[in-house]
Amino acid sequence: MVQYTVNISEDKKYLVADLKQCRQHLDRLLLVRSLKSSSSEIAKLTLERESLNENMNKILIKWKEEWKIILSFIPDFMTKILEILESNSNGIINVEDVIFGMTMEFIRCVTLCISPKRIGRYWPTDVKWLPRIVEWLEQCLSLDKCSNWSNLYVLALWLSSAVRTPFDLNRFDHEIVKSNDGTQNHTMQHRIDYAIRSIVTDHSLLPVVHLLAGGFYSRPDIIRTSSRLEQFVGLLLQKLQNQSTVYEQVCCLRIFATLMKVVDRETIHSLVEQIMEPMFDLVKSEHELIAKLSIKILGRSALTRIRPRLFKWRYSCGTRIISTPKSSELKEIGRSSLYSSNEFNIDQADDNEEEEFDIEDLPTNFETVIQIFLHHLNHQSSIVRFSIAKYLASICSRLPYNFSEEILTYIIEDLCSEAQDDTAWHGACLALAEFVRRGYVRIDRMKQIVDVVQRALFYEHIKGSFSLGTHVRDSAAYICWSMARAYDPRLIGQFVVSHLAPLLICVVCFDRQLNCRRAASAVIQELSGRTQRFPNWIDVISRTEFHDLSLLEHTYLELGVHFATYDEFRSSIIQHLCVNKIIYWDPTIRRLAAKTLGLICGKLNFSISNSEDALKLLELALGPDLNGRHGSIQAIAHLIKYDNKLDPTDVKIESIIQELTVRNLFVGIGGDLMRESCMLLMKEYFRRQKQLPNSSLEYKTTWINLMLNTLTTETAFVQDQIIETVPAFIEITFNDASTCEPFLKTLVSIIENQCVQYHSISNICRSLMKLNLKTLSFEWLKRFVEAISNFINKVFDNPLRNSETVADAISTMVRLIDFNSELWSLDLFQILIRCLDDHTITNKGDVGLFVRIAAIKSIDPIDNGLLSKLDSHSLLRIIQLITSEAVFHRKKSFALSIEKLNLISKWKNLPNDVLPADIIQILNNFGSIETCSNDMDEGWDKNVEQYKQLLKLFSCDRLTYNLWPGIVCVMQDPGFQSSIKLIIRYLCELKPLEREQVLKTFLQFFRDHSKDIRLSIPCLISAKQLLLQVPTTVEFQLEIAELSWMTCHGSLNPKKYIFAIDVFCSLIPLETEKKNQNLNNSFRYLYVLLGHRFPRVRSYTATELFTSLLSIDDADHMESLFEVTEILQQTDWLNLEDSKQSRVRISNLIKSMSV
């Protein structure tokens, strides 16, 4: 077997294993083919055919994006395939053969992976295959195409390569066929021609039929000896005119496009007129592919009618510059004049070209074609526009200067105007890029191209709730890239420094779309490498690599600020932010632009306070445009924060807010945006000035009312600002009792008033979390604590409560107590305990988790104002609840609980009588274990060590009971199989006495929570698993049965009965000292359940009892057991009367077994 030694990266070594499966697949086909009597193998292969083909398709399609890696394996595959096709025992291959079909299917999968065109080089060159392929293709055509389309696909593709043999096809003829008109048809030509005509409109063969037609009808012997090409073209035209389907039209057009490409120009010249005629109508089609192919045919038709020429003036442009002086002594001035002047012989060259170019060489409908191209440059499909751009440039390359100049002028002046839409701009930019890439634009017109680029790089058109223009900006970057590739650096260097560099920096830093930023980065690399005149290009390239542009925040706040340090870019960046981005339609961009502007001023110690930009910002702040108001106020706020040279009093913040309030702009659409920006402005003003402006009482009242009204908002981005503005306001007014105290009193009343919305209280609590508490007196701290505690007590058991608000409240309350421990009381401790043990479950899920996490976070042994007030019993209670939450193993609380337990164990003031020393050591060990991941979706492996340490806490009598709430919840969750195994393994490894003590605690816990809505079912499920997997005593088994019955008895929840039945039936097979003791004990409860009023309970009881009895090995009572199982099977347990009669019979039989 061939050894695969292709060099591939480490992360793709599994490619070898995949392709070895392909090789093994081919080896198996070859082996079956080589066997003379292999009917059984072929039958087996037929059954597996579909799955094998699907597997091969999955393997090869997986590597479609990295097809180059596959190429080195293709020759070996092709060798095996040819061996399979040659190894038939009788020398004849039937195309209906399963091996032949699977071989063709494999080749088709390979072509789908690397494309049909690329596989052409791997087909065998031996001419012996040509007759065979034609014969196989004819056989397939005689069968159902639906069942043989894979064979037709591969054979047509193979024939497209084999038909290119340099030998005349006549040598393969064995007989001459006469047509109806008496002419002689050579057999091979006739057979191939007939095959192509049969599949010409088969859409499933679209990727290959045009290759076959192009390869056959472009052969010199076909063109020379027959009129098959003309007949075939007539057939295609007839199909187009006969109102054919879209699929048939696409097939015909694809073949026409290939014929126009591969057939000799002189041969196809006579057919161009009739081919072009239907294209004028088809180009108007709404079908994207039909329009594209029609454009391609029109373009290639026009090119066949225009003789290729290379005009003299083009030698003075682009990479085509020919340096006449070759002496190394050429002076610099002479060299510079050679590259900077293009007017030396242009007029004379044009005159000579006019003499050489004959206008009669143009086709009669040439002008119509050009008009169609220019008209469809604004086509709705981008691929149509791109095709037009390419063919326009190719046609203009064969036209004299004045002709191509007219086309270029139309594109620049008519299509690149403000009146045109985004499709026209995109088409124009693509066309200009193709002109520039080929070097067809003279340098004296490059200034106009650069002007178009300047407008296109920032083109954006708002349409409804989205914007258009991404493709325009991308194509503008394509023009710049083409310019760098095609023109001499000394010709375009002047445009790079003065025009393109600042624009490209703005695009690469501030464009909203990632692909546009990366396109601009590619242009920068190209211009820098070729011209080396891009300012600071080494630093720019290193900071604008492909992956560095992924995050918009990074490009704005880091790259934009950094590049502004360069004088060449600073003014363009600031102007672009102030003019374009501050008023941008996307609020995220406005926020980033405003912050970037502030950071630039702060980092560079640069001020725009006296510039026109600052005046424009103040004008926009009170303007009619919502986007302008929002962005400009954001920018002013960040300038106040970062611009040290800006005097905040010059901003007149009070007049801005008063004007916006009078105009009622804080309500309705856009009100939240204005609240956000004004809160940011007030916050930065307060922090910068440390005092309120000297304004009237009316202004202060307006500010306070605005803040109070904003506290009621539930919009996230407004909340983020108000919770920082309120603390800033309190900190600068705490010495002004007339201003601060009424505001604080209002905040307290909002918390005490239960009629307000919950998010208002949440905003106040979050504001207090950010407040410097030194600004509040003890009386105010006490009032806030009392208000928050009363709020928690009132809403804690309310089913309509907002758990996030309760979480904010408990965090704030504990922070206030930590700041001043004199606020501590026993009632507050009870509130904290309730929050740590909050397991409220609603239709939204475990909403109590928010409260528990907030309560655990608030407990900080380092800032120990609260913990220092607790006695040993209270500390132990907190540790018990945190431990229970840790064992509960929930996604967001597991790592946090582990961390808090570790910190508490290391707290230097922890009383010695809270926990034993060995337990303290276990908790200390959490710090030496790598921090576990909060993402439980990544698997349990990362948290195994932490969980093992937690299970060791079973050895502490003070914590054992509190471990069981979390343990039973884990054991009932099928998603925690790994942790369940750890629990079972730990219990099994315990010493018998220790295990008995732990299980005894479980019984106590089960008894206490047998009627608990949340924990009763988890207890039943855990009881079953303990019985089946952990060694237990008879006493434990008897008590488990009693507790299970206690849990389900009288319940209206059928699930409790189901899980209790599982427990009872799990007890039956367990061995005891007294024979059948568990059977008799469990059947006491099962007897009642066999006659339960719920049919589902009766049926499930009978099924599980039947399964359990089968596991009893009692040779003395086999007949009774057999009779009981027969009754269980034959009784209709959905019928209550039959069920009651049958359970009596079963009860009598079981009683007889205990005698």
TrEMBL record:
Domain Tubulin-folding cofactor D ARM repeats residue range list: 290-537
Gene Ontology biological process terms in this record: microtubule cytoskeleton organization; post-chaperonin tubulin folding pathway; tubulin complex assembly
Keyword hit for Coiled coil: yes
GO terms assigned for molecular function: beta-tubulin binding; GTPase activator activity
Keywords for the protein's UniProt record, in alphabetical order: Coiled coil
A Pfam family: ARM_TBCD_2nd
Domain of life: Eukaryota
Keyword Ligase recorded: no
Residue runs in coiled coils: 35-62
InterPro entries for the chain: ARM-like, ARM-type_fold, ARM_TBCD_2nd, TBCD
Name the record gives this protein: Tubulin-folding cofactor D ARM repeats domain-containing protein
